Amino acid sequence: MLGRIVFQLWQLFLVGVVMIVVVLLFADILNDVAMFLEIMAPVYPICFTMTVSTSNLAKCIVSVAGGATRAALTVHQARRNNMADVSAKDSSQETLVNLAGLLVSLLMLPLVSGCPGFSLGCFFFLTALHIYANYRAVRSLVMETLNEGRLRLVLKHYLQRGEVLDPTAANRMEPLWTGFWPAPSLSLGVPLHRLVSSVFELQQLVEGHQEPYLLCWDQSRNQVQVVLNQKAGPKTVLRAATHGLMLGALQGDGPLPAELEELRNQVRAGPKKESWVIVKETHQVLDMLFPKFLKGLQDAGWKTEKHQLEVDEWRATWLLSPEKKVL
């Protein structure tokens, strides 16, 4: 009976830990949780195997997540395309810090070995200090490439005020707590069969624009799916993401340019127009809006030749709509 109660409490604890890990500073918190599980493993012998196995599993996840994060930050810090040099210096500093930590632990070990309560107190204090330091470090980062969160903030500010946020302001406004507020679902690089099931539907999406992407908007679920052409480059992906987020803005609040305000009133009035018709009209609005927005991004210091948008690998080929010639 006692074993079952301990097991249920342990499950609740792990669920809470997973919720925290998903929300904020994944690799750092998960690494601290793994160390805590190793410390607590001898306290509950009945759960020793499960605890140690969970700890090792968490460390494996930390290795993958930490490696991916380190690679992204190394690329960000290699301002002169000197990624190898930055990586070598980072490894040297980490080795030095680990050596210093080993020396400090050797000095503290005789002081805490006979007092488990004091040991746990030191662990929780240092863990809290570690998480806070990493939180401040993440907050101090200024990424100059656009991901979906930063693009959403910059585009919203631009549509409402006509100004483009600079990277410092946008990074400061970007939330670390994600997934708790409703936002349009944007999927880039999806397979073509998700959008169309017939030639007629394909013609509807292709008609009226020459952009190498096809976009489908589900108004009821506020979901945008984008098929990319083989010719689509970073600028096309950025425009497609901007297009999708702009459609999401039609179901939101706040001031919009006159052209988009008219479309938003049509959307709110009811399903009088099919989604593909609204998408076609927003293509025309974006033809005027996106060049100014792109130039504003470049003038504000954003790097538009690359991005951090989540794009799947599916690509398709179709004949672009012929350009209308004005005589």
UniProtKB/TrEMBL annotation:
Annotated GO CC locations: membrane
UniProt keyword Lipoprotein present: no
Keywords in alphabetical order: Membrane, Transmembrane, Transmembrane helix
Domain Root UVB sensitive protein C-terminal: 163-318
UniProt-annotated location(s): Membrane
Membrane spanning stretches: 12-30, 118-135
Keyword ATP-binding carried by entry: no
Major localization class: membrane
Pfam families: UVB_sens_C (PF24160), UVB_sens_prot (PF04884)
Lineage top rank: taxon: Eukaryota
Record-annotated Protein root UVB sensitive/RUS domain positions: 25-161
InterPro entries registered for this protein in UniProt: RUS_fam, UVB_sens_C, UVB_sens_RUS_dom
PANTHER family named among the record's database cross-references: RUS FAMILY MEMBER 1 (PTHR12770:SF31), RUS1 FAMILY PROTEIN C16ORF58 (PTHR12770)
Similarity field: Belongs to the RUS1 family.
Protein name per Swiss-Prot or TrEMBL: RUS family member 1
Gene, per the UniProt record: RUSF1
